[in-house]
Amino acid sequence: MRCPYCHADNDSVVDTRAAEDGYVIRRKRKCGKCDKRFITLERLQEGTIRVVKRDQTRQPLDREKIRRGIERACSKRPISSQQIEQLVQEIESEIYAIYLLEVATEQIGEIVMRHLAKTDDVAYIRFASVYREFGSVSDFINVIEPLKPKPN
């Protein structure tokens, strides 16, 4: 691993720990040349699932795109970075558990919405409004109606 400070390729691992429920290995390293410390993350590289977009083009599944969409939906909401990372991990795990080679963007969007609905109603509505391309107030009402508390 190259040092991010001096770019030397001479480091030693100082500490190793599991992170993200064992899906990631976090290593603390020390450069042998400049003695600075840095952290690396190792993530399991699963089989590449291709995402089928609405125009039928295909591209590899990108967890960062999922994260960015969730972060936009959760903007200014009381949701921590750890919660967002946990959501991304759960969504990615679900996709790899269900789909082998390809998954449609619509299916990813539905999975994301299901997880957001359990986490935060406002983030769910924000994501749904973009994902489902709301064009009228009735579109919002149709999504909000099931979220209303039931009278006793």
Which key features would you list for this structure?
3-stranded mixed sheet, alpha+beta, 152 residues, 6 strands
Set out the fold topology.
Layout: E1 11-19, E2 24-31, E3 37-43, E4 50-52, E5 58-60, H1 63-73, H2 81-98, E6 102-104, H3 105-119, H4 121-131, H5 137-144
Parallel strand pairs: 4-6
Antiparallel strand pairs: 1-2, 2-3, 4-5
Helix pairs in contact: 1-2, 1-4, 2-3, 3-4
Give Rg in angstroms. 20 Å
Could you give the count of β-strands?
A: 6
Low-confidence region ranges: none
SSE pattern: EEEEEHHEHHH
Main structural class? alpha+beta
Q: Assess the beta-strand content as a share of residues.
A: 15-25%
Largest sheet: 3 strands, antiparallel
Helix content: 40-55%
The average pLDDT score comes to 90
What is the strand arrangement across the widest sheet? 1-2-3
Total separate domains: 2
Describe this structure in words.
This protein has 152 residues and is an alpha+beta fold. The chain folds into two domains: 11-43; 50-147. 41% of the residues lie in helices and 22% in strands. It has helices at residues 63-73, 81-98, 105-119, 121-131, 137-144; strands at 11-19, 24-31, 37-43, 50-52, 58-60, 102-104. The strands form two sheets. It has a three-stranded antiparallel β-sheet with strand order 1-2-3, with no helix packed on it. Strand 1 (11-19) and strand 2 form a beta hairpin. Helix 1 packs across helix 2 (81-98) and helix 2 (81-98) packs across helix 3. The radius of gyration is 20 Å and the shape is elongated. The protein starts with 10 loop residues before the first strand and ends in an 8-residue tail after the last helix. The model has no long low-confidence stretch (mean pLDDT 90).
